[in-house]
Amino acid sequence: QWFTTLADSFAWINRVLTPGGRLVFATLGRGTLAELKESYREAAGRMGIKLAAGRYGPSLQGEAELVNALELAGMDEITTECRTKHEYFPSCQAFIRSLKARGANNPNFRPMSFATERRLMSLMSETYERRFTADGRIYASYEVIFCSCRKGKP
Predict the structure, then answer these.
(1) Secondary element (H or E) of residue 134
(2) How far separated are the first and last CA of the chain, in Å rounded?
(3) What is the pTM of this model?
(4) Continuous segment of H or E residues that includes residue 22
(5) Tens digit of each residue's pLDDT (9 = 90 or more) over 69-128
(6) Cα dist from 92 to 23, 37, 119, whole Å
(7) Residue (of 81, 75, 61, 50) closest to 152 by Cα position
(8) Which residues of 113-130 are buried (b: 16+ CB within 10 A; e: fewer)?
């Protein structure tokens, strides 16, 4: 999510790896923060607002897109494993604070009026806490894709 495009990023990595060199990495997948995205969509729908794609939450790739981009960059022996991890919080407000404390922000954010944004946040929090609660705590999903591949020999 920190690169402009997967194809450009993997092509650059392929250029600097020696033939037979390995690339091993983990990245967040498409299912990351699915609850947050769904809560925003539902809250916006209740307000009659159409949110731009990617407004709330990063636009992330899935396993298939990663594998395809690696193959196009000339990598082989590609293996992936996808795991979903959950983090729990006492409230949606505590979850949002934790994201901000980590420095998570959205470069696609375009401000609304203060009153509209405040109402949307309130409805999103209510939706999140109503729909995504387990044992009295809300949860956030992080889809982590682990990948290993090798630069093909010339």
Answers:
(1) strand 133-134
(2) 29
(3) 0.83
(4) strand 22-28
(5) 999 999 999 999 999 999 999 999 999 999 989 877 665 556 678 888 889 999 999 999
(6) 36, 13, 15
(7) 75
(8) eeeeeebbbebbbebbbe
